[in-house]
Amino acid sequence: MTPTRSPLRLGSIAPDFEADTTKGPIKFHDFIGNSWVILFSHPADFTPVCTTELGAVARLQDKFDERNVKVIGLSANDLKSHDKWIDDINEVNNVKLNFPIIADEKREVSALYDMLDYQDITNIDAKGIPFTVRSVFIIDPKKVIRLTLSYPASTGRNFDEILRVVDSLQIGDKNRITTPANWKVGDDVIVHPSVTNEEAATLFPGFRTVKPYLRFATQPGSQKA
Known about the structure:
Blueprint: E1 18-19, E2 26-27, H1 28-32, E3 36-42, H2 48-59, H3 61-66, E4 69-75, H4 79-93, E5 101-103, H5 108-112, E6 134-139, E7 145-151, H6 159-174, E8 177-178, E9 189-191, H7 197-203, E10 208-211, E11 214-217
Parallel strand pairs: 3-4, 4-5
Antiparallel strand pairs: 1-2, 3-6, 6-7, 8-9, 9-11, 10-11
Helix pairs in contact: 2-4
């Protein structure tokens, strides 16, 4: 009997794997190194929504680099197909895509990360094998999964939102804070519940208490701080 693999959750170690990519073969944990990583999947090459998504990520490459984030895509086709598709992506979006795309024709990585589509019965290849949904994983330098998202195949992702989450996670890791609804860089943050008022007075001078459990402070490192 095949043992059941534990589901991937926030806090799980991202499974390691070896794969061919458009930038050469990788061992995933070695690829991560000391960086943050965004792993995001696509149902197939030469699909309309995916073409716009990859162009959007390519336009944000500098912003990911500033945050020490490596981006890696995945699609259920071979490298030859990927290379041709990248030409289209660059042309359609007026970009130069420089990050790797995993060739996952056999869906091995997709299965490992539970990316396959079990909802849309039309999202299958000619052999009847499910394609991937639009999954996103944010993984930190300790190889820990910090965010998971799954979009239906019909809906393109908001990569500005994914950048926002990276900012929140990175600021939260460096400071004892969390971020409120619709927060963006420079907005006030929430003092972490584990911080006492005495500690907060030192860490976050001028913090304000709305409720005993809700205290706002200026974002550490912002121009307002």
